[in-house]
Amino acid sequence: MKGFEKLNKAFDSRVRLGVMSILVVNDWVRYGELKKRLSLTDGNLASHISALEKLMYLEIQKEFVGKRPQTSYRLTGKGREAFEDHLNGLELMLRGK
After folding, report:
1. How far is residue 5's CA from residue 7's CA, in Å, rounded to a whole number?
2. Domain 3-95 - what CATH class?
3. What is the pLDDT of residues 2-51, one digit of tens each?
4. In the chain, what are the domain boundaries?
């Protein structure tokens, strides 16, 4: 199958797939929003975010809103390209090409 070699092992995890799916259609997304939408614990989300950050698929922005720290994420160009290649591979597999 031609599409199989396009699949990215980084997206084997449903959590990473979920994070990337949310970020591909949004600009900046807050940590709390990702946690809520994916129904994850802090530790679980943090470990997957860290893995995607090491691959340089995410950009991180830390700021204070009032006195509270707030962390937000968005895809880098490299992350967007990797995820789109992964989706294209899935599509090729579904079409049997």
Report:
1. 6
2. mainly alpha
3. 778 889 999 999 999 999 999 999 999 999 999 999 999 999 999 999 99
4. 3-95
